[in-house]
Amino acid sequence: MLKKILIVYAHQSAGSFNAAAKDAAVKVLTSQGCKVEVSDLYAMKFKASATAEDVTGTVKDAEHFQYGEETMLAWKEGRLSADITEEHRKLSEAAVVVFQFPMYWFTVPAIMKGWMDRVLTLGFAYTSEKRYSQGIFKDKKAMLSFTTGSHESMFSANGINGDMNVTLWPLQNGILHYCGFQVLAPQIFWPPPHIPSESRCSMLEAWRTRLEGHASFCLNVEPDVTTVHWCDCSH
Amino acid sequence: MLKKILIVYAHQSAGSFNAAAKDAAVKVLTSQGCKVEVSDLYAMKFKASATAEDVTGTVKDAEHFQYGEETMLAWKEGRLSADITEEHRKLSEAAVVVFQFPMYWFTVPAIMKGWMDRVLTLGFAYTSEKRYSQGIFKDKKAMLSFTTGSHESMFSANGINGDMNVTLWPLQNGILHYCGFQVLAPQIFWPPPHIPSESRCSMLEAWRTRLEGHASFCLNVEPDVTTVHWCDCSH
């Protein structure tokens, strides 16, 4: 059986560096024998806000609506909205999840936070007993792959923004590891708009090389990677 | 002139503890002579996702759409969507901004992240020269006020979730302080659903007392706070 990879992708433009990074991942991982699915959140017009509409039928307690409890119940009873159920399927089947996004305000864009809020359902993705090292997704891997708006020096331990590892803590520990994911080192693309075109190409090349090194993501299929140049990616 | 306070509020239910905390703040601060505005994000069906629709008229570069650049330009030219412009007005007029929310996945819910992504527009809320101590909102104060799903011990430095101060860093430093806000100590309501009703009442009482102590939020109007009990708030 082919290993499946899910890429949760959030950029508005097919001409963006994020799109190029996503496309490169699809190409490399597919060539290695993985089956890759992409949740293109903006293209899907993915609903970001956690509301009672995520539950079909009657909610248990409309007056004191509690999203976590209501959606857990709906999940158990097969009453979650179709878009959440479909993301559950993708996530269940995936061995690896890659989140590809431009960092907005030191974390993921709201549309991707909405994916996390709505898809990582209580019961499905975690319980109070099953979290962190005992987490439900402990056999899965996850990675953040993102572009920044600031230079690397600003995110050093002495940088004006503080250490990037601290910035990523709530995402990597609080969300991914909480659900059990083995968190792979983040792929950080320092600000594509502020560097020369050749540097953007080098970053993409390094990304492809890194993914090729992750043959363990997929079955042991002989790599057959087509070299595609993304140097025309202007952002 | 009355000082204005903006409460950005995100909970789906008027029967929630978050609603009670918001209502208590409105009542206390109004009694102290402030003018309080509330952005009730779920009630407003606030759009969370940052898209080209936030710009009216033609975008500069549709093929390589860059949200930050396009919305800065639209802001300068008065072409931002009406909902963003209205939040800009509220934010401009406010001396203090309180964010009231249930913590979702170690940060704000997606709908509130959407407020941050869309309202804290490049140019309006920050520039590369005007940030942190030189930030545009350096004469304003901001505070996070939120409920948790975990007990306090889990968020201690040795707790399973790690130190709450680290969890809050991207929000408090990366968003609020970045825009210049003087960040007030957070108001943390440890998990209301997991504690006795009397403890919930005590937390609300402490919140009211804290707000009464912030007379500097408002003009020096003699406090005339009506004591309202929220002990009937079951969540």
Automatic annotation (TrEMBL), chains A, B:
GO cellular component, one term: cytosol
One term of GO molecular function: metal ion binding
Alphabetical UniProt keywords: Oxidoreductase
Highest taxon of source: Eukaryota
Every Flavodoxin-like fold domain range: 3-208
Family recorded in the similarity comment: Belongs to the NAD(P)H dehydrogenase (quinone) family.
The name this protein goes by in its record: NAD(P)H quinone dehydrogenase 1
Annotated organism of origin: Salmo trutta
Lineage, opening ranks: Eukaryota, Metazoa, Chordata, Craniata, Vertebrata
